[in-house]
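Researcher: I'd like a structural prediction for the single chain below. Treat it as a standalone chain; there are no partners to consider.
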Amino acid sequence: MLPYSDSKPIGAADFYFAINATFRFVLNRFGIDQLRRYWSEIGSDYMVPVSAAWKKHGLTVVAEYWRAFFRAEPGSKVEAISSAHSVTLEVKQCPAIAHLRKDKREIVPCFCQHCYFLGEATAAPAGFTVRVEGGNGSCRQTFFHTNGGIAPQDISKIKEATC
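Model: Treating it as a single chain, here is the predicted structure.
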């Protein structure tokens, strides 16, 4: 299900330090618009196999993907809830935010926006869209069919991350 193979059942949490630092570098060097573009390009380029699977198999595979993803993320507390029209991720503890906080790292305030931009770019080719609410350690991400008349994402609904 995941677009990469790894022999470990759980990933290395120190990866969260690297992505936080990368986000900070791109933000400081190029600005928020380029950071959002970077996130979107990960979704539209790297996540192609995921988008293809979602397009071919629908919401059932969207839920299966996220379950596999969060099983491999150290410290995650996430439930993927399926319905006929959507998949909702109830993120009770974001593994990245929890790890960054535990190690007293300064978190890029817009960190949680990456879930929307990357998720939207992954979902769109498959005929889906995502809406994110909350953030800063816990959120709700809901994947819908794009033909569902869903209002555009309101970025202000995504909280800034703090230490």
